[in-house]
């Protein structure tokens, strides 16, 4: 988690994400790319100071002025947030075109290993029939882990990490990331959470948790099994009540009709839980 991308639209939520990313980079010795995407649907590409990429259909003078204003705002944001941590290198990037495509292009181009994005907290009745936020789409589409931040965290001190899973064989893929997090936050308590939809499954869920911990020699952990009508609501309810500092989840990253039919628990939790949520694909 050293090569970090922070997309920004200059909103308070994006500001929160930038603050958290700076603190993570300071802990891990990482560096940050701060990205803003200019809404220019007929043009596309990464641009740098004083230049454009694919901007011919737009008025040239207007585009240059827009990019100059954007560059100033980027530098103001960097001066405000990054000045307290001069040890963290920050590079600004400006792109034009579709925001999802631009973010994915930068992820591939710069070999990003973590995206930190700001988001609004959505109500539990938020559904696939409503508005799907950029944060949710990024959780689904990004090939690298995504950390979704909803609240200000000027002091991102993680004392409680919740790994929410069904602890099937797929959960084993989370171990490298869990070890990285525990190394970055050695004071944190690791909670292994399984949400069951019927209470009589609690015993089997607890056995799966202990088996997972034993396989990977996790000496210090807290097993937690809770019952809820839906896993997607049970996880944020538990993490909010437990005042978790960080939630970790796997996602399959389905798209198209499969995603419409099945939905994504990770996407839902990412925008419903108060705590930052780290998701990564399996």
UniProtKB/TrEMBL annotation:
Pfam families, alphabetized: Usp
CDD domains: USP-like (cd00293)
InterPro entries tied to this protein: Rossmann-like_a/b/a_fold (IPR014729), Universal_stress_UspA (IPR006015), UspA (IPR006016)
Domain UspA: 1-150, 159-279
Protein family: Belongs to the universal stress protein A family.
Protein name as annotated: Nucleotide-binding universal stress protein, UspA family
């Amino acid at each position: 988690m050293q090569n970090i991308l922070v997309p920004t639209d200059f909103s308070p939520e994006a500001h929160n994400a930038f603050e958290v990313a700076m603190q993570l980079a300071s802990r891990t010795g990482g560096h940050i790319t701060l990205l803003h995407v200019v809404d220019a649907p007929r043009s596309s590409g990464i641009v740098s100071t004083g230049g454009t990429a694919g901007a011919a259909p737009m008025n040239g003078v207007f585009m240059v002025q827009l990019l100059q204003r954007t560059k100033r705002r980027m530098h103001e944001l960097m001066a405000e947030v990054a000045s307290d941590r001069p040890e963290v290198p920050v590079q600004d990037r400006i792109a034009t075109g579709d925001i999802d495509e631009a973010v994915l292009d930068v992820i591939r181009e710069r070999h990003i290993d973590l995206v930190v994005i700001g988001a609004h907290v959505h109500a539990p009745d938020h559904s696939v029939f409503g508005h799907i936020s950029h944060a949710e789409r990024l959780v689904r589409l990004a090939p690298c882990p995504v950390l979704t931040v909803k609240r200000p965290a000027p002091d991102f001190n993680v004392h409680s990490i919740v790994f929410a899973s069904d602890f099937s064989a797929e959960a084993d893929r989370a171990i490298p990331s869990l070890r990285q997090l525990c190394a970055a936050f050695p004071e944190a308590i690791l909670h292994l959470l399984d949400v069951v939809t019927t209470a009589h499954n609690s015993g089997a869920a607890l056995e799966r948790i202990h088996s997972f911990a034993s396989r990977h020699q996790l000496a210090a952990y807290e097993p937690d099994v809770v019952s809820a009508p839906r896993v997607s609501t049970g996880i944020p309810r538990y993490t909010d009540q437990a005042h978790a500092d960080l939630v970790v989840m796997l996602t399959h990253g389905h798209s198209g009709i499969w995603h419409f039919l099945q939905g994504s628990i990770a996407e839902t939790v990412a925008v419903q839980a108060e705590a930052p949520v780290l998701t990564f694909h399996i």
